[in-house]
């Protein structure tokens, strides 16, 4: 049976889907103080028509600008200048989160309930009417057979209200064990070891993501079947990493060695590995011998959220997570966060992060600035 795990820590929610073999099948990172906005309902104002782009730009709450394609306006597609006009207010929903320097993608095709909810909101300028569902709810609706387990009492109550009490269990211990935590640590870096040797090297760029198969010691073998086995494992793991990391856009996969004819035999296994991911599709084997994959952009990719390398905010939130675990294991102690100025600034700028840390620790967290330090460390402080 599939299982959804939701782990809450100061400033972050981490949601994982485990398949029937208890293997990580999907992962979502959310920062509730700075949500990505997917599924949010807005009242937005048309600021500029863009016929050349077949759409329009809309002003949203908080000063953000979204893009509305003409294909997402009304029941029948028509030129954008005929469908809407500048200055008009529209009820819209976010269908793609802002990412890669581009604003959110919008649709004006709402359900009757969504349209009624926007219409019932107080009159005024651009406004956020309702937040979209959190990742745990999206996964629960996509996998109705899955049970959900969380280590957060407030989130358990919220999810029980939406899914029913029988489907949501509250854990008094962290729901992510050491094996899951170790795998999540791998998602923050470019290297993924392969079973039996070799590794994947993942290199995101603004234009595309390149995934390279490094055969390691197998590269020197004279056994062509060993190389084929390695690459078979590599294409399966590449498809899994693409989904876990929310990679999107153009993705190129270069397998290790193999003739063009032998590379072509991997197209079927790669397509099968990508099949459970509705956002991804294999375009084929290109003239350079690279597998070309296209994945729809919905959420920001994980490397944008975490930073590449880890951003000061990600370093600080990881330290707060460690502090919360230490405090749960050893209650009644005082803790301090020793960090670079950029880390403390990033934490202070994320709404709720430091307040949630103080609540988890049961005492205010002492912040110690160390200009020469890189990253952040948590340490126990003496009483008195």
From TrEMBL:
Needed co-factor(s): Mg(2+)
Keyword Magnesium tagged: yes
SUPFAM superfamilies found in the cross-reference section: Nucleic acid-binding proteins (SSF50249)
GO molecular function, one term: RNA binding
Record-linked InterPro entries: NA-bd_OB-fold (IPR012340), RNA-bd_AU-1/RNase_E/G (IPR019307), RNase_E/G (IPR004659), S1_domain (IPR003029)
Residues covered by the S1 motif domain: 39-109
Keywords (A to Z) from UniProt: Cell inner membrane, Cell membrane, Endonuclease, Hydrolase, Magnesium, Membrane, Metal-binding, Nuclease, RNA-binding
GO cellular component: cytoplasm
GO biological process: rRNA processing
Keyword RNA-binding (UniProt): yes
PANTHER family xrefs: RIBONUCLEASE, RIBONUCLEASE E_G-LIKE PROTEIN, CHLOROPLASTIC
The protein, known as: Ribonuclease
Organism of origin: Roseicella frigidaeris
């Amino acid at each position: 049976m599939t299982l959804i795990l939701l782990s809450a820590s100061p400033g972050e929610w981490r949601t994982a889907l485990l398949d029937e073999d208890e293997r990580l099948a999907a992962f979502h990172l959310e920062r509730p103080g700075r949500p990505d906005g997917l599924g949010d309902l807005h009242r937005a104002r048309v600021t500029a028509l863009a016929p050349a782009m077949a759409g329009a730009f809309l002003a949203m709450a908080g000063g953000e600008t979204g893009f509305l394609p003409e294909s997402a306006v009304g029941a029948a597609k028509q030129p954008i200048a005929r469908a809407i006009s500048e200055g008009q207010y529209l009820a819209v929903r976010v269908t793609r989160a802002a990412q890669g320097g581009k604003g959110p993608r919008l649709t004006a095709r709402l359900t009757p309930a969504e349209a009624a909810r926007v219409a019932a909101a107080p009159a005024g300028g651009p406004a956020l009417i309702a937040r979209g569902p959190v990742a745990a709810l999206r996964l629960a609706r996509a996998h109705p057979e899955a049970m959900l387990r969380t280590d957060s009492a407030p989130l358990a109550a919220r999810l029980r209200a939406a899914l029913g009490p029988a489907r949501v269990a509250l854990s008094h211990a962290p729901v992510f064990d050491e094996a899951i935590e170790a795998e999540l640590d791998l998602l923050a870096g470019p290297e993924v070891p392969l079973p039996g040797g070799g590794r994947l090297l993942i290199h995101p760029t603004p234009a595309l993501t390149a995934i390279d198969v490094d055969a390691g010691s197998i590269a020197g073998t004279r056994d062509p079947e060993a190389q084929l086995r390695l690459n078979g494992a590599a294409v399966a793991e590449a498809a899994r990493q693409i989904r876990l990391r929310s990679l999107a856009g153009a993705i190129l996969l270069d397998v290790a060695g193999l003739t063009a004819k032998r590379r072509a035999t991997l197209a079927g296994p790669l397509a099968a590995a990508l099949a459970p991911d509705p956002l991804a599709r294999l375009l084929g084997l290109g003239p350079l011998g690279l597998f070309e994959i296209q994945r729809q952009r919905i959420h920001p990719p994980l490397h944008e959220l975490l930073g590449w390398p880890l951003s000061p905010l990600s370093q600080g939130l990881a330290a707060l997570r460690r502090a919360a675990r230490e405090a749960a294991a050893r209650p009644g102690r005082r803790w301090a966060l020793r960090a670079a100025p950029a880390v403390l600034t990033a934490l202070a700028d994320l709404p709720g992060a430091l307040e949630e840390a103080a609540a988890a620790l049961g005492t205010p967290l002492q912040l110690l600035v160390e200009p020469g330090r890189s990253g952040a460390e948590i340490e126990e402080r003496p009483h008195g």
